[in-house]
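Reopening: ATP-dependent dethiobiotin synthetase BioD still failing for me.
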Amino acid sequence: MNLFISAISTDSGKSIVSAIFTEALQASYWKPVQAGFPTDTETVHELLPTKSEKIPEAYLLKYPMSPHASARRENIKVSLDNITLPKHSKEHMIVEGAGGLMVPLNDDEMVIDIAEKHNLPIVLVSNTYLGSINHSLLSIREIQRRGLDLVGIVFNGEKNEDTESVILKHAKVPCLLRLPQLEDLEAETIKKYASIVKENLIANNIITISEHA
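Support: Ran it again with your exact input. Result attached.
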């Protein structure tokens, strides 16, 4: 199984969530489009308790901004045609998007188009801040409009039952993880939450025990 990790906004904690899911599934990790340094590939691999191969980005851009803007500064054209799933050594692969779903890759294509092109099931990271319900529901509606498979929500930040309940009602998918604001980003922390994710993926029939024996 391949999963696409995206979010309702930038700086959502996608890389931490990606590391947790990578560990939970003992998966390969891939960031197709990286804008700015240090790279999320380096960050994720530093966090992983179980090391995996490093898969190079399809596009490695210098500036920490929207891919289309960073690419324009470097006179590069990011094209969906050049973003193809890499070969990897694991049964599963976690693919991390850049920013939110509707962040532009170029003047016509968005991050969500990567998931759509490769038919990748999506895990959506929703942060708990004022306005996150609106951002979450807009992201969910776009996923649904395109007929893509939203497999679950990850809530990142202070727990807010009122916010979470309305998002889950409209998403019609389970919460796969509630992640507090983490101060301690060590391998053991990733391993702890990976165990929870694995249990929830199995409980919601997203993976089977035999797939992850």
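The mean pLDDT is 94. If you still see a failure, please send the error message rather than a screenshot.
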